Every structure is written in C-alpha cells, then in structure tokens.
C-alpha cells in the first residue's frame, strides 16, 4: 500500500453567514413540510390561520422530517464547497414532505412540475397536492425529484446506496437510516456493503444513522441502547463512528457541520489514497458513519394538551389532530408555523428569499436534480456481443445435452469485457453452482476483506458480486440499474421468494416511473432462476418452490416479463432481449443441470420472437386438421417430459393426432388486452385451436396457467399439470412423477382428454401404468437395491 | 436489582474419561456422517472398501458437519451434569447427516424409526436412506428427531430459537449460526432477540457462531474479519463474547468444554439472579455467545489430488468425488473413515460401544428426544373465552360501522389473561395502529432495554412482542408454536410479502409433519393482515399489495387456509376457529378502518361455518328461479361495494334478479378434490348455479379466483374484478374506482353480464357513468376545491 496521501481541500468550518443561510433553509423546509401536512390555504401565513385553511384530511409524517432536512442542508453546504456529486437516499421514506420541500427550495420541483411555481400560488399548490387525490403520495416516491428510493417498505436504503455507487467513483450516496428501519433484517444485513466496496473505482456511501428514538408507537432498539453499544456494533461492521447529539441551535449546526466535514474529508482521503498510483487495497478502509441523535419531531410542539409530543412516538405522524375543530390546536399550529419566521423565508411574491436560496448548490449538483437519481439520463447502452456467437450446435432435437446456463455465463463473460464499468452479476455465492462461472475468466469475486493465497477468483478488483443475502444482491442490482447501469441477479428459484417483496416493490417503482416523462428509462432488473424447483431433487423440499413466477405474474404487464426458455439457444435469445430492455422486471427461469437441447439458434430466435410455437417435429399433428389433443409446455423440465410423452404417443399410438406447443414467453398466453405480449385471438387459435383439449405441463403452480388463459375460448379445456408442492430429496424423475407431470402421466392425460378414442389407447395406458408402477417399486425398493440412479435422473427422450 | 446471586453448581472441567467418551461420540458421529454421504454397504468397514460399497449418487454436505457434532456432544456433557432441558437448532441445516447421526447415537432414531436398528444392519439402512429416493432428505428436516428448524432457507435459526424459549423458563435453545447464514439479512436482524428476553420467565438462547470461514464457493464476511471486529459487532448486539479456535484434539475438547461451561454458568447466574425474590430487571443482561472457529471439513482429508480441501470451501459438500471410479479416491475415503477407529465405536453387532453411549444424556434430556422439539407433546389447549361474548350488536345490515379488528383485539386481551404463559401477539410496532391494542389493557410491550418514565405500555414484563421486523415477528411465532404454544402475527398486508418466504417454508414444514405420526400437531401459525391494500390509501402505492393471499393459495390445502371475514362478527368466528386449529397456516385478511357491519353473531357463525353463502337481504333473488346474475364478493371493502351495487340495482332496476354471494373461506371455491374445504358440486351450484354469469369482486388479484374456480361448471362465466396494481395516495373510494371494483362499475358489470336484458338497463348504466364521471372530476379538481373528503372516504351503502 502506498503511504502517499494527497490531502483534500478540507471543507471549512461554517461561517456565521453559512449557518444563518442553512438555518433559514431548514426553517423553510420545516415550514413547507408542516404546510403540506396541514394547509390548503393561507400557505404563507399572510393572515391569521382559520379553520378553513386546514385540509379536510390530515395525512403525512412529521416526526422524521426535521432531521431529514437538517442533514440535507448540511450536505448541500459540503457540495457547495466541494462540487461533490451526491444523491440523498431517505430510509424513512415517510418523511416525504421534507424531500418534496427540498426539491421545491432547490427549484427542481418547479422545473419538473411547472404548475408548482416558485411563488405563493406554487406553495399553495405544493401544499394541496400532498397526500391528496390527484396529487402526490405521502412518501418519498417516484414523483420526488432526486430519489431512487421510496422507503415505503423499510430495509433497503443501504443496499440501494451501495448499488448506486458501485463503478460510480465520483458519486457519494448519503443514506439516512432511520432507527425504525434499522430493526429490519434486510437493513441489518446491509451494513456490510463496505466489505464489497473498492475505493478506487467505486464511489462512497455515507450512512447517517438517525436515532430519534421512536417508531410509530414505541421506542427503537438502537434508540434505547447505550451509545457505547451502538458504537461497538457499527464499529464491528467496520465503520469509523462519528456522533452528534442535541437539539440546540445554532450549536447543532456547528457540531453537525464539523462532523460532516470530518466524515467527508475522511472519505476523500480514503479515495485519494486509493486512487494514487500503484495502490493496492490493504486493510479494508474504515469508512465514516455518523450517528445523529435528535428528538423525534424536533422543533415541533413540545406538548399538546399537556402530553409530550416532541421527543416521543406521538410526533410520528400528525402531532396535532382535530385542528379544524379545536381552536386551541389551531392556535398551537399557528404558533408552531410562525416559529420558523416565514416572513424571513419567503419574499412578497412567495419566492424563497436569497437567504434561503444561498444554501442551495447549483444545477445538477442540487441533490434533487442529480442525474444519478434519474439514471436513465446517464445510461450508456450495453455493448452486447452477437449472442449467436454462443450458439449451441443442435444437429437435431435432443441430440445433445448441455448445462444450458453455461451459455449465458459465456455471454456475460463478454459483457464484463466490453462493459468494464457498467455491467455486474449479483448472486448469493452461487455463480459457479449456477454454471455461469465463465465470468470468472475475466473478473474475480469482489471482496474488500482479506484475500488469502489459497483463494480462487477473489480479489479487491473483482466485480462479480457474491454475498449470501438475496436482499443485498437484489437491492444492489436495483441501486445499480436505477443509476443507469446493467446487471443480472442469479439465484436459486425457491430462495428468490426471500426477496419477492423487493421484486414487487421494484415493479411498482417502474410502473410509476413509466408515467413520468421526466424519468428516463433505466435498464431492466434481470432475475435468473437457475437452480429450479424441479432440479433441487438433491437438496430437498425446502429448496423446491416456484413461487416467484406467481408473484411476478401479478405485477402489471407494462413492467413484468416471465420467460421459460427450454434450452440454451432459447436462453441466449431471451437474455439478449432482456439485456437490451428498459424499465422491466425480467424473470428468466431455466435449470443449470445437463438437459436436452432442442432448437438450432435460428429456430430458437424465431421461437423466442414468437414467444410460443408449435414443435412440429415433436408431435403427430399433420397441420391439415385440428389435432386430437394439444400437449403444451412451459419450462425446461416439463418440456422434456412433454416431448417424451409425445414420442411415446408417436410410436405407440401414431393414429392419435398430437400437437406439441412450447411456450417461452409466459405473457403470450393472456389476451392482448390483458398484457402487451398477449397473443391475438388468431394466433392463439393457431396454436391451441378454439376447442381441442390442452394438456399443459407447467414449470410453476398450475393456477398460473388457469389465470393466464382465462377468457380464451373455452378455457376449461386447459388441463394444467404443474408443481403441486410435492417434493423431497429424491431423483429428478421422481420429482415429476410426484407432481404428475411425468411423461407417462402426460400420455394418459393426453389419451383421456383427446377428442376421440383411438384403438390401442387402453393398452397404452396400461403400459404407462406399468411404467409408473415400476418407478414406484423402484422408489420403494431403492433402499434395498440401490440401483444406479443415472437412468432415472434424466432420461432424455426415452425411445428412438 | 437484588444483589443476591445464588451460585450454580458449576459444570466441572471434563475428566479424561469424559473427553475420551465425547471424542468417541464425535468420531462415531463423523463416521456415520461420512457413511451417509458415501456408503451403501460395508457400513462398519468390516472389510476393505470396494467400489460397490459406494453409493451410485453422492449427495450431502460434509463441511459444516464435524463442527455441528462437536458442539452437540459438548452440550450433551453439560446436560448430563445439569439436567438442563435443551434443544439444538442447526442453522446450517445442510449438516443434516450430523444431526441424523446424533439422533441415531442417542437411540432416538431407532425408537422413532424401528427399521433403523441399533446394529450393523441399522447402520447400513441409516446410510442408504440418506438423500436417497424413498429415504430421508439431505437437510435437517421434519424427519430429524429433535429438530424444529430445517435450515434449508437460511436466516431463521435465531428467531426460531428465541421464539422457542419465550415463556419457556426451563428451556435452553442452543443455536448454531453458520457464517454463511450470518450474511443473510434476517439472521443479522435477529441477534437482537436478547433485547426482548426476560430472564425470569423466558428461557435462554445460547448462540454458537460457527466460523469455518467458507460458504459454497468462497469465504464469508465474518470469517475474514479481524476477530476484534467480530467481537465488537457481537458485543454491540449486547452479548458477552467467548471464543474458541483451533483444530487440535484433545486441546479443543478441553478448551471448548471449559468455554461452554463458562457460558452455561453465566446463563444460570443471570437466570437465578432474575428469579430471586424481589427482582426487577435493571440493565439488560449480557448473555453469553460463543464464537467457534474450526476448519471447514475438520478431520476430513487435508488435500485431494494435491489441492487443499479441509479448511476451504471445497469441503462444503462431497469433498471426494468419483470415488467409485477412482481407486486413489477410494483409498483416501477408506483411510479417512478408518481414522475415526470405528472398531472402538461399534461393537460386534454394530451397536455403539459403551464408550460412545456414555456421552449421551438420558431419556427426554437427549436433545434428539426433547419434547420441546416435538411441541405438540407439550401443547396445552388454549383457554378460549366464548367469542360470542365479543359480538357486535348489528340490528340490521350496515346499521353500524366499526373498526372490526378491535373485536379480535378484545378477544386476544382475554387470551392474554387466561393463558398467561402460552399465548402471545407478534407485530411490527403496529398493535395499536392495527386496532388490536386492547391487549395493552392486560400486557405491555416487551423490552429488555431501558424503560423511561414517559413510556406507555412498555416494560420488561410485557408479553406483547413488537419489533420492526416481519422476519423476527414471523420467526418468533414459528418458534413459539413449534414448541407448543399459541399466537398470532399481525402485520400490514403489503409488508407480509417481506416474510412470504417464511410462510412458504413453514407451510412445507407442516405438510411434512402431517406425514409423521410421531410428530404431534402444533398450534397453527395465525397471520392477521389488517392494514390492507385497499385502505392504505393514505400511505400510497408501496403499501398497497395483496400478494400474500396468492402465495398462501399455492400451499397445499392440508396446511393452508385463507379467510376474508367481511365484518367483526365474522372475524370473531373465524378467529375462534383459527385459534383452536392445529398444523395450519391461517391467513386472515380484514381491514382496521371503520366499516359497515353486516351480520348478527348468529348469522356470522352460520355464514362462517358454511364458508360462503347467499345474502338474501342484499339481493333481489327470489330463490324460486335462477338469478339473472350473481354478484359475488370476498373481502371486506369489495363486499361493501357489492352490497352497494346490489342496492343500486334493487332500487333502480328491481326487475333484474341479482343474487349476492359472500365468501369468507376462500378455499370453499375449489372443487372438493382440490382442497378439503372445497364445496361439493351441489352446494356450489346452490350458490353460483351452473350457468349464470358471476361478477366476482375480490380483495386480491383477480387471477386467484380464476385459478380457484377452474373446473367448476362453465368457469368462464366468472368475471373477476380485483386488485390490479393501481394505487397511490388517494381516497379509499378512488382506490376501488382505479381498480374497477367500485359499486358503479359493478352495476354496469352486472347489467352487461346478466342473462337477460331488462328495461332501464341502459339508463342505469348512463347514471353510473355519470357517477364515475363525477368522481373523476372530483379527483381532477380536488386540488382546486379541496372538498371535504369524508363523503368519499367510505360511503357505506349509498341509498336507502
């Protein structure tokens, strides 16, 4: 490690003028925050408050807000001195009014929403729109300029912050962690982000743990702990802990300004040292973190009706209720609002005074205007190779078997090479296990902790992100894409449910973002599930669950896509599409175990473009007439079973006309009016006819297909077999048998649901039953015989 | 705080004989673990190994196992000296073979599974069944005696442990936390359990953080941290950190025995002090915690093919591959197995020798035999009051409005009184917010942290569990019920998705437990969602999501129940049923806001018993003929809209025969063969006919109803309106309008889908459109007019 340390231009101690300006900005913000919660008129208090000035319904959260705006204006001062590109992430997202007010005071709000003008009428509109029908949400939301983080569902502020600064060396993410949020598992699991940060090429996260002591209805764990324990805890996570406590003004301004300057200088020191020539990371830097202790509802009414409010959970939401009806409360509100001296803060026209405006940084340096928080503005298109270069040679269907996911691993290897600062793979320690380890040819796993000689593919320079936390992987990728970069989260299918709520919340974010023209589209959130329910036969029931498909299915069609490529070439085609897309959640499900390959690359491209198609070669459907039955499939393992069933039928009941349909893009199934990918009626009819029974083998829960084909002609004719929560540690073939999607059961299903009886049917059913009986006997007797299981692991296509 | 400290009978230092016996037990366990992974024959190595002795498929995880069994036998020694009731929770659940071997060496396994005898043939069977078709899963699972924790999906070992010891003063839960698991959010969020433990009335958790340094493919964060940082971190969580490191034997035995004794004595000291007369908790005790550092794969082959295995991630699963084909590897395996000197461990017959057996505690004190880990054996029935005592007086439908959830709050208040050690409520700081705060009349919130004078309903004696972590609440309740006690988890509907994966995993556990006669049934896991998607109009889109219904829907019918009571009396009836039930996940969804009450208690009881029924008073269906259309509903808010729609139709289009059907028990909708609650065809026909169109207003996503009614006669006639991911901060009425389930849209739906045209229909549709236009205008103009929103918040039944 180099010992040469370039010193930074330190942030100076604040001048009295600076403090006056910051304090004015803070007062203005508090005033605007309270106004948003309470006022529908008389916005700048140009006359005494009357009940009619009060909104008919009081909504919003005061308690956390003054702390949020206090931190905001102090960070603005640092930015003004340093030109530091900074985004502000609000863990306690319910402090929405403070962040809306910040954007307003910085002028960004009026730039984006011209109706909210920088004058008295604009203030009135700002107030009325807050938490109102036709207005804006109560939380920091997609509509809030400068935000990449809603903070409604708590727990993700640090993962978003760390994701945002990866490969973003010039960015500082200031992340306020509320002490309520700090109780959640995902948040507690995310302090360790610094163990994955490289100060040379990554930016910095400055966490501000804001301890105001209370949640909605009681104290917080960290708020009640001995400060020494809190220091010990955060120090144990690897931080250099700085602390500020109090409610005295201007003392708090002086002390916090000093502490923030210290923290910022420390960050710059770490970075400058790391960015000096010849540097290699030795010990993980001790990044600074500030613990800020202020009373909840700071500057609000100390007591209401003789009961303490400030410094208690009672200030969490609307500290004064019944203001319209209760003259005393109305008077308290007026006194409270006037305590900020609005006459100093807004001029005649209602525009913030120079005193206030001086506190703002300029242009894109305003945190509410940061292009990093509108990542689409900074997105560079991913430099993608021609995915056809990774094509698998498939001379004929099922003539080769491959671990299909290796193909996307090879594709991503090239993505790492071509996009050295804008693409990352995130996975809970499963990159190799998921057979996408080709990326390790060109990048290591990242760690900022010690690297030992015996370690493989692990370094401080690595950019493959492995941490055994689905929350961290998911959240880092969210932060990475929301700031305009590209990536993929690969995980076990069952454990994707761990972060299912994050998938839901991100879908909601994208859905709302689509409605705002000023939000440029960001790269999609790509999720690859590649140790699937069906092939966790070795790990057992807890690892067997296709739940995330069902979760994504209920997101809105504009933002959610589900792909079930049956082989490597289809996976490549799908992956190319996903990597090029914007503002989607793309869910791709394909197993990592060796599996038959069906289509040539050209066939795969055509098949994936259509989203679903007839596999002529698999069925006995001559195309001239309707088939007797359709065997449909979506998902790799069930596709193999369907092809095998069709092959049995072809050989043993050739007079039965069987059509095989494979579905890659699940969202082609619903009607076009239900999803943008939905097939039109003609196309649907071409595949499924409008009356022939369909036996549908599905990767996930059967109900998903029922819900998707609802409204299609005679939807009752769809007989779906899927994962029915039957599993254990067993053979892969036993997994499909247990859930009734094995080839023999499908043959019997096809015969039972065919439109006509064909001679030989009952004999074939008997043959199938014998096959299943043999299987069950095998399972029962296995402990005695222990036969080679290979034949039972994954027979490709049974015969000829 | 009393200063009187009764000293415990300290656990003595281990004698050489004790160490010899523990070491033998440990060697036997390691031998059996490896045997389970590798051997199908020659189980006790009575002859040289040959390829045929090797299993055809090698599965299982070696790396963590020797550490698990090492801890196990040492805890057994403490138990033998102290008689301490103890359960062992295996965070790294993939160490299944070690725990199976422990149960076998303790004799429990043969008691439960008589085929697995205590002789050579039994050992052979033990080996063959492991990870084999027809055998047992590879993880610590439901089949493993002594387990309440599978540890497949990582993160929950500490929440299960803390839940198990609540109100269980005599129980010690030893919880091994793997350093892989320690990276997950839920685990990091669960160290704080001690902040909620009262040493007088609760038992103790002894966490063993087992740092072997590696996950599947790389190092762990805690494994690479400076030990001082790890101490600081855990000390910050409030623990007294003890450390043991090494791989030397017998040195490790001596040091770990000493450390475990110290930890145990410290626990007893804390408890005895707390249980002395006149005690009140002062500072939260510093509970002991042990950091155990041993090489991954300890005692396994140091190198294979010249590459390090022990002490690296390569020992995670099967460290020696290709043993059947590779004679060198076969020889390594034989040497490895013989290094445990099996001849000292098993006698002629194959039974463990006395040397090994001496290490076992006796009877129920064996951890594999603890009745606490088979909680149904200890379950006392909940003492329930007559729920009718809490009935709401409902003179006629919708004549009163109530916050329905207050009723279940009052019921639970009595549960707290009558069941002072066997019932708890768990909630993320939302007990009051969810209107179940009546419990605070009789119990406080629990904290072991400082209590201040200004605090309300907060004390060290409280038994209402509030922590802002869905993972902790869910997991604590799981641990509490799996050890035989009763409870309820109340949370916001949208944020129930945070712990959806836990709901899935617990369902799987119960499903498997149902198959094992020796597992006595445990109280159900009751989940109450009472700040619902529809009524988070004030909090906005991130708080609006009914996803958990969809997740629970896909669990197996034997273990999953979903109730949507429309009012307080129905909620009481449902709650009584849920609290009495065993081995279910009961999901109950009802909002907390004031809402119309529909049924008298007698009506509610009958309605809930049937699960679904016709509301004659709401419709115009005369019962003699089929109705023209059925208006169905499931869920409180949509029920109100359906009743209002029916009322509009009754008044304005009386000649249309409209039937109103309300569904409380969602699982009555599928066919009887799909779910035990499924209505038979006759009953279904009585409600829905077999051909009349049904407009179904549903609380959740519409697809759920489509999947449930699939297979019912002419299922296509069900037109479902549900939550379609449209939301923001707005009025409750706007929420239903946005999602198309408002009364006016339903009236138009009913007309459009009625079996016959009725004069006046088009006029009524025009009227409805005008109503909606008025609403939309209201929303658009709201920011100008700011009318009183009360009328729009929740009109009960619009007219008459």
UniProtKB/TrEMBL annotation, chains A, B:
GO biological process: carbohydrate metabolic process
All residue ranges annotated as the Xylulose 5-phosphate/Fructose 6-phosphate phosphoketolase C-terminal domain in the record: 592-793
Annotated Pfam families: XFP (PF03894), XFP_C (PF09363), XFP_N (PF09364)
UniProt-listed SUPFAM superfamilies: Thiamin diphosphate-binding fold (THDP-binding)
Gene Ontology molecular function: any one: aldehyde-lyase activity
Family annotation (Gene3D superfamilies): 3.40.50.920, 3.40.50.970
Cofactors required: thiamine diphosphate
InterPro entries per UniProt: THDP-binding, Transketo_C/PFOR_II, Xul5P/Fru6P_PKetolase, Xul5P/Fru6P_PKetolase_C, Xul5P/Fru6P_PKetolase_CS, Xul5P/Fru6P_PKetolase_N, Xul5P/Fru6P_PKetolase_ThDP_BS
Keywords (A to Z) from UniProt: Lyase, Thiamine pyrophosphate
Top-level division of the source organism's lineage: Bacteria
Ranges for domain Xylulose 5-phosphate/Fructose 6-phosphate phosphoketolase N-terminal: 15-377
Similarity comment: family membership: Belongs to the XFP family.
PANTHER family cross-referenced by the UniProt entry: PHOSPHOKETOLASE-RELATED (PTHR31273)
Name this protein carries in UniProt: Putative phosphoketolase
Organism: Terrabacter aerolatus
